[in-house]
Design a protein that fits this description.
elongated, 9 helices, 6-stranded antiparallel beta sheet, 2 domains, binds manganese (II) ion, 8 strands, SH3 type barrels, Arc Repressor Mutant, subunit A, alpha+beta, about 250 residues, two-stranded antiparallel ribbon, DNA-binding, homodimer
Chain lengths: ~250, ~250
DNA sequence: TAATAAAATTAGTCAAGTCTAATTTATTTC
DNA sequence: GAAATAAATTAGACTTGACTAATTTTATTA
C-alpha cells in the first residue's frame, strides 16, 4: 500500500503500514525498503564470490552509480547491517548476514516456484523472484516455501498431476503464436455462433495448425490447417487454445 | 530492481528497462507505479459500489489524506486514465477501466492463490495479493492464473494431491505452537545425536503432544506427551514438525 | 617518489508520493 | 439567501533514492 514516512515524526497508521517484510528477531528496527533489501542481498552475493567488496562492485551489480551506493551504505551502517568506513571495504555484520540470508531464502524458493512449477525460464524466474521477495509476509513466505518443497516431493514421487499442470501451462491462445509456429488445437473457448463458426472453418480439437503470417496488431492471421489456407481475425484467434509443437521458450 | 526515472531527461541505461516492444512508437506511456495502480484499482472498486466517487472516499479507502488524492488524480488525468475536473466527481476513462480491470484480475487470482491453494485467511490473502499484483510480469501473470484455474479443476476432480498439500500446509514446528495447543508429531528433522535424543525423550511420529507452557523467547517449552511432562529447548522444538489438532488459523 | 589513474565521496538536484496548514469552493441548514 | 459546515485544493515541506559534477582519497605506474 502507500508509502509511509519512517521519521522522527512518524505518522499514525493502523497495522503494519510498510510494504516491507518483518524479519526474524530484529523487530525493533524499522523494516528495510525493497531497495535496501536488494543492497543487502547483493552485497551478500558479492561477498560469496570475492572476499573484498567495493562500492564500484555494488554499483555495477545493481546498475546504479557509485554515489547512490555510498549513500545507501551510510544508511545501512547506521542500521547496524554493514561494517563500512569511508574509502574502505564493505562487510556484513552478523545481523546483516541474517537479513541477507532471509531475503535470499525468499529469492530462492520464489525462483524455484516460477522456474520449476510455472515452467518459466531462468532469467524471468529470477527477475520475478527478486521483485516479489520484498513483499511476502512471513506467513505467506512459509506457506510458499512449503508448497515448493511439496511440489518437489510430488515430482520425485512421479505424481501425475505434475504432468497435467505442465501440459496446461504450455497452452497458449492462437493469437499468441508467432509466425511460422505449429500448434495443436486443445479447445475452443466461448459458445454460441462464434464457436460454431470456428468449428465450421475447421478449427477442431486435435487438429494441427501452422501460422503462416502474423503481424502483431495487424489483422488477420493467416494459417493453414491440413492443406487449407485460412484467415482468422485476432479476436477470434483469441478464443482458440492451442499447444505449441516443438520449440522451447 | 532499482527505480529508473522516466522523465524529460531519461537517464541512459543499457537495455530497455521496461518490457516494451520497441515497435514504431505506439506512444506507449510509462507504466504506472504500484501506488498509482492502487489508485486505479480502488477508484474502480468505489465506482462499483456508488456511482459517484469523491476525493474523500478515495482518501478514506487508501488511508491517506485528501491532498495526496488530489495530486494523484491530476497525474492520472494527465495520463488519460480518469475523467476529473476540480471540485468534481471522479470517473474512469475507457482506458482507465481497462487498466483497473487488469490490475483487479491479478488481485483476484493472487487472492485465490493465497486463500484456496495456500490456505491463508481471507484478509492476509487479500493483503498479499494487493502487494504482489504490481510486480508480476504478464507472463508470470498468465501462468499464475492458469495454475489457479488448474488447481480449481483438480479440486473439482477430487484429486488426492490437494489433500496432501492441505496436510503439509497445516504442519508447523513445535516451536510455533501456542500455549495450550495440542498437536500430532509428523516427523523430526535433522539427524544424528539431536534426533536420537529427541526420540529417546519420547518424541515419535504419531504421538500427541500438549503444550503446557510456552513464553516466546523464554526457554524452555513445557509439554506433555501421554502422561509424561517434558521440557524442551526452543531450538530443539524447532526441528519437530507437528500438525496442530483442532483450531483454525 | 612524483605523476597519473581509478575509486569514492560530497554537494547539489530531482521526481514521486506523502504530509500539514491555509484557503477556496460547494453543500447544508436555519 | 446568508451563515455554518464540509469537501477540495493550493502552498509549502519532507523523505527516499536516484542522478551529475566537482572534489578528495587511494592505488598504480613510470
Ligand atoms: Mn530483490
Ligand atoms: Mn533477490
Ligand atoms: Mn495493490
Ligand atoms: Mn489490489
Amino acid at each position: 500500500m502507500h508509502k509511509v514516512y519512517v521519521t522522527m515524526k512518524m505518522r499514525r497508521r493502523q497495522g503494519n503500514p510498510f510494504n516491507f517484510n518483518d524479519y526474524p528477531d530484529t523487530s525493533m528496527d524499522t523494516p528495510l525498503s525493497p531497495n535496501m533489501e536488494d543492497y543487502m542481498e547483493n552485497i551478500s552475493m558479492l561477498l560469496k564470490e570475492h572476499d573484498v567488496v567495493r562500492v564500484k562492485d555494488i554499483a555495477k551489480k545493481l546498475n546504479i552509480r557509485m554515489p547512490s551506493v555510498t549513500a545507501a551504505l551510510q544508511k545501512l551502517k547506521e542500521k547496524g547491517l554493514v561494517d563500512y568506513e569511508k574509502y574502505g571495504h564493505v562487510q556484513l555484520t552478523t545481523k546483516g548476514k541474517e537479513v541477507a540470508d532471509s531475503i535470499y531464502e525468499k529469492h530462492s524458493f520464489l525462483t524455484e516456484f516460477f522456474k520449476e512449477i510455472l515452467s518459466m525460464n531462468t532469467q524471468e524466474a529470477e527477475e520475478q523472484a527478486c521483485k516479489l521477495e520484498h513483499h511476502l509476509s512471513s506467513n505467506a513466505s512459509n506457506r510458499m516455501q512449503r508448497f515448493v518443497e511439496f511440489y518437489k516431493q510430488e515430482q520425485l514421487d512421479g505424481q501425475q498431476w505434475i504432468n497435467r499442470l505442465d501440459s496446461v501451462l504450455e497452452e497458449k491462445r492462437l493469437s499468441e503464436l508467432k509466425e511460422g509456429q505449429k500448434a495443436e488445437i486443445i479447445r475452443i473457448l466461448g459458445s454460441g455462433p462464434l464457436k460454431k463458426r470456428l468449428l465450421e472453418m475447421g478449427f477442431r480439437k486435435g487438429e494441427i495448425i501452422h501460422v503462416l503470417k502474423y503481424a502483431p496488431l495487424k489483422d488477420p492471421i493467416e494459417i493453414s490447417i491440413k492443406d487449407f489456407l485460412l484467415s482468422i481475425r485476432v479476436e477470434e484467434a483469441h478464443s482458440i487454445i492451442v499447444k505449441p509443437l516443438g520449440s522451447h521458450d
